[in-house]
Amino acid sequence: MTSNEQPPNQGDGETPDQNGLWDPNEQIGDNYEVGIGPDGIRHAELRGDRPRIWIGSLSDYNNGILHGEWIDAAREPDEIHADIAGLLAASPTAATDGTPAEEWGIFDFDNFAPIRIGEYDRIEVVSRIARGIAEHGPAYAAWADITDRDQDALEHFDEMFIGRFDSAEAYVEQLVEDVGYEQMLDEAVPDHVRPYVKLDVPALARDLQLDSNIHVAKADSGGVWIFDGTIW
Fold this sequence. Notes:
Blueprint: E1 32-37, E2 40-46, E3 52-57, H1 58-62, E4 68-72, H2 77-89, H3 92-97, E5 104-110, H4 123-136, H5 138-146, H6 151-154, H7 157-160, E6 161-165, H8 168-179, H9 181-188, H10 201-210, E7 214-218, E8 224-228
Antiparallel strand pairs: 1-2, 3-4, 3-5, 6-8, 7-8
């Protein structure tokens, strides 16, 4: 979408039906993957949950014109830069005064979970985060937030992500079972004392976080995501 009048995330534009291929609830800014054959459009798949950014031309904006478009951010940086070059080439201000539009900014963003994208964030970083979210879901955005978008840490999500749990305490309870701490207590503590010896699960969960042995992030769908903190 290229618009000189409609700002991001506003309006209720409609697209004419193309033989029933388009979602009847389509809105301005919706993202579609379109397959085109010799006879026209073959399929159009709504990709509304993919991370995307709204790129605007700054020279047009400074002249009172909102010119830009929503761009799928979950792609390689060179593909995104190519789209940006295309929208700048179509600048209405440049067409009027002959001055090429070269500056742009990220005016809006969508589907990045807790991550906030800044106007001048590097496309290389935005692309990496967006591709991670598209592949792994919002847990990847939580990891990017925890690590302050560190490029090296972003590449090690698979190693660091432990899973989703109802709470940090629920994770510790599973950890206690997996490691066999209760069995250790059974073997170390006399039978007549054992009923009175309990692991303080909430305290252990708290201390694991305080010591950065685990990182905990609230999950949008409920519960928490747990990440290994012993490496990062």
